[in-house]
Structures are given as C-alpha cells and as structure tokens.
Design brief:
Layout: E1 2-13, E2 16-28, E3 32-36, H1 43-51, E4 58-63, E5 67-70, H2 75-78, H3 84-89, H4 104-116, H5 132-144, E6 150-154, H6 162-179, E7 182-186, H7 190-196, E8 199-204, E9 207-212
Parallel strand pairs: 3-7, 3-8, 5-6, 6-7
Antiparallel strand pairs: 1-2, 1-4, 8-9
Length: 223
Amino acid sequence: MDLINIKDLSFSYEAKKDVLKHINLQVKKGSFTCIVGENGSGKSTLIKCILGLNKGYTGEIIKEKHIGYLPQKTDIQTNFPATIEEVVLSGTITNNIRSIFYKKEDRENAKNIMQKLEIYDIRKKCFADLSGGQQQRVLIARSLCATKNLIILDEPTNGLDPSIAKQIYELLDNLKKNENITILMVSHDIERALNYADTVIEIINGEITYSGNPAEFKFGGAR
C-alpha cells in the first residue's frame, strides 16, 4: 500500500525554472525512506509540494490524509516559550482545527506518545531550555500527534552532535519497527541514511537519479 504516490511532478519558482523535473515516487506503508542530495537539489521543495505548501506544480500527488511534519529547525522553534507538553499537544491541532480546546483523547494520545519517546517525566520543562537532541525528540512527538501512519522530516539531525544524531535515527527506526510509522525524511547524513533506511532516493538538479536499495546506492548518480 502506498501512502504517497507521485506521478510526473514538476515545479518551478518564478525566479528559478525546473526546480523539480518529472518526479515519480512511491512511499510504501511501513517503510523508512530517505531523500538525499546536495543543497539546492530540490529535496525540501519536493517535501513542500507533498505537504501542499508549494502550489502550482504539474503532475499528480496522491497522499495519506493525516501527515505529521517536522520542518527544518529554526530559531523560532529553538526558542519557543512553551512547555514540552504544550508543544507536543499542539500537534493535535491539525486534526481538530475547529476547536481551540484539546479533547480528552488528544491529551491521552499525547501522554502515550511522550511516554514512548521518554519525555513524559520532563513534560513541564520549558522547550527553550532543552538540548538540541531533546528538542528534536519533542518535535517528533508533536508530529506523531497529527498521525498514526506517516511522518515527514526535513533534516531532523542537522546541527546535532553525531552521537545525538544516531539516537534520533534509532528513535525513528524504533517507530517504524514497533509502531508501524512510515518515515519519509530528507537527510544530509548519507552514511546514516544508508544504515537505517530501507529505501534511498537521490535527487540531483531536480531529478531523481536513484531510487531503491541503500546497499546498491552510490552517491552522485554513478551506477
């Protein structure tokens, strides 16, 4: 079963033509898919098209209705003046946009997720006071409040120490294996992507140059 099915997708910004060219891509349920490539190759643009943040593309995107999303880290995210619990709970808003109040089941779901990600005991701590790795763990928990099937992450280990980045990959791998969460992730960390993903997609200059088994992947489009 495909949670994302993209057919002949192309996209251009006004100031830059052909950012994405004829992209065909399927993300299967229960998979861990990593998109790799140089900066400016079109990876994040593709993610934004899937999420509906980029309009005006050509082609077709068929996707899971509820998607959890962790964007690239920003200073606003890093310094967000809220508790861990408040940040995690805010992930339920996408499923409950008609109400400003959290439902009992939303709170229970957030509690379960925080327990699984081992942040429940520190839920009253301020998000801004956490380490980079802890913040990413909280934001992953937030993304899981929006979905039971698919989360999309854009460079979730960028700027983290290697040991902390490894923990994030292990956490995502655990979510895939034990919770059947489908992972689609943009990553600059090709070595870890190859170790943890079951599918690697390489984008060069807006085109997919490889899609398949990580064991057969060679960086740079050379096959």
